[in-house]
Amino acid sequence: MKAVKSFVRILKNREVADKIFLLELEAPKIAARARPGQFVHLKVGSKRADRDPLLRRPFSFNRIDSEAGKISIKYRVVGRGTEALTDNEPGDILDVMGPLGERFDLSSAGESPLIIGGGMGIAPLGPAVIDLEKKSDLTVFFGAACASELMETSLLQKTGVNFQLATDDGSAGIRGVVTELLESRLKKEKKPYSSFDYVYGCGPEPMLKELQLLSKKYGFTGEISLESRMACGVGACLSCARKIKQPDAGGESSGSEEESGGGWSYKNVCQKGPVFSIGEVIFDD
Known about the structure:
Elements: E1 4-17, E2 20-26, H1 28-33, E3 39-43, E4 57-60, E5 63-65, E6 70-76, H2 80-85, E7 93-100, E8 113-118, H3 126-132, E9 139-144, H4 153-159, E10 162-167, E11 174-175, H5 178-189, E12 198-202, H6 205-218, E13 222-225, E14 241-245, E15 264-268, H7 269-272, E16 275-277
Parallel strand pairs: 8-9, 8-12, 9-10, 10-11, 12-13
Antiparallel strand pairs: 1-2, 1-7, 2-6, 3-4, 3-7, 5-6, 13-16, 14-15
Helix pairs in contact: 5-6
């Protein structure tokens, strides 16, 4: 559905872990259109003029409640924009544009899908978990640096899905990275193909790169959601362009899709993504 620009009211903006905040917004027009995997472009604003950033910031949906007309995002304070966002309080009004971008193709999930997320990449997977746990035998692998940064564990426990956790320091689940959970599972299957019908992933780039390698090794398909800085959110500034493989190297490309002549083209994450097929993203070394 077409994106809308709305002035929405803040319902919550509170710290839920160290430098990680939950922002809940009353946004009925956006909530009615939003789908798992999409995002909003938010004009941060601040009560302090010294940290009121000029450009909007992209945030993926952490929750979508179309009936109540509410959306939620989770964000980590990492710079001027997110620091300014913490200044806003319940009752304040924010300028929000969305939903933007391509959504996850949940119709391809099959009977046994996998959702795998790492770090802040767990947050955008919440709506997909809620949707797929009702329709399939869903498995979820989540990983983070430590137990306090593992998000959505209460959601997993509430839904009763099959899930496993990983942390870098071993404070929750196995000690290691989340892709180790997946490879360990696939090795035990001892099959020439994966038992997962479809895989949905989101997380830091090294994790997604490893997930892509595992997809080639074990023969599974799916989608990944990229994290990217975006200045405009509508494909005009080209700041979020990424190398994407061309299904047909001789196909035409125009506008923001600059053809390389080498079987790939630049595509804007804001318009053509953030969700891409697991095998089509080119991760530069």
